[in-house]
């Protein structure tokens, strides 16, 4: 009975999220009678779509208009047509992307994972340690998933190639961050879900990290190199889009450094300068 009450807390929390998002965006008659799982999926879909457009438009406005020719030369700004195509690809995949957090919430609500509801259950020190382990697992998993999407030729041809048509600075934009084949995008996010079974993780932190992925992928596709070691910034990821065999990492450069696939933007710039001379 106590166990049932504990897992009910997760269900109550997701129901609250549903009420907040759907209650502000849709008439109640459209969704209140729907099954909980379907409500959760619609909430994740709408929240994911809003996050994609808000972060994408704000970032594009900043780098292509307010900071025009500061971060990106005028002739390197992607065309409106290129960005609209990226939006089209992302929107086709969005219903499938947002199914993943919906499934993860279902598994958490049913007690299949190691998630916990409140940081007070474990304390701040354990929370931070578990979060660090979780992020290491995610980084490891995404690196290898991404690398195999390149190395296994059928996977690249039928899935990942959809994303790699954006292979130059003037075709990459924040909107390219989610422009994947649906299955490709899901596979690269699956390590977040696998980690739920391996390490205790705070429920809201897990959901937050899944949605932060949308902001992060927009950031690493904007071609602006912030040079914040050991962060896998846009400079590294732009090289990935041009060489196809370097910088598979997600948040950091550690996996690439350890496995010999790292290519530094500064070294790359030096090599290009030498060729010009």
From TrEMBL:
It comes from the Eukaryota. Residues 132-261 form the Fatty acid hydroxylase domain. Its main location: membrane. Coiled coil: none annotated. InterPro entries: Fatty_acid_hydroxylase, Sterol_Desaturase_Related. Keywords: Membrane, Transmembrane, Transmembrane helix. The chain crosses the membrane at residues 45-65, 124-145. It is found in: Membrane. Belongs to the sterol desaturase family. This is Fatty acid hydroxylase domain-containing protein.
């Amino acid at each position: 009975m106590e166990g049932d009450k504990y897992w009910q807390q997760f269900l109550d929390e997701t129901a609250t999220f549903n009420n907040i998002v759907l209650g502000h965006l849709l008439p109640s008659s459209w969704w209140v009678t729907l099954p909980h799982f379907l409500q959760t999926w619609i909430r994740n879909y709408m929240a994911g779509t809003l996050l994609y457009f808000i972060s994408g438009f704000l970032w594009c406005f900043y780098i292509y208009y307010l900071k025009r020719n500061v971060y990106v030369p005028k002739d390197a700004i992607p065309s409106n047509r290129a960005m609209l195509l990226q939006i089209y690809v992302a929107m086709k995949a969005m219903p499938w992307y947002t199914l993943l957090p919906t499934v993860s919430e279902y598994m958490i609500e049913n007690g299949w994972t190691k998630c916990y509801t409140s940081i007070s259950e474990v304390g701040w020190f354990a929370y931070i340690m578990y979060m660090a382990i979780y992020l290491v697992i995610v980084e490891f998993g995404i690196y290898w998933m991404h690398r195999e999407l390149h190395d296994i030729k059928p996977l690249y041809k039928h899935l990942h190639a959809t994303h790699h048509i954006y292979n130059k600075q003037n075709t990459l934009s924040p909107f390219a961050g989610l422009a994947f084949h649906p299955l490709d995008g899901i596979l690269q996010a699956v390590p977040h879900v696998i980690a739920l079974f391996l390490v205790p993780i705070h429920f809201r932190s897990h959901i937050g990290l899944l949605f932060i992925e949308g902001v992060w992928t927009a950031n690493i596709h904007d071609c602006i190199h912030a040079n914040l070691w050991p962060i896998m910034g846009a400079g590294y990821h732009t090289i990935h889009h041009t060489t196809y065999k370097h910088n598979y990492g997600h948040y950091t450069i550690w996996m690439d450094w350890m496995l010999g696939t790292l290519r530094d933007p500064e070294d790359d710039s030096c090599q290009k300068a030498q060729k010009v001379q």
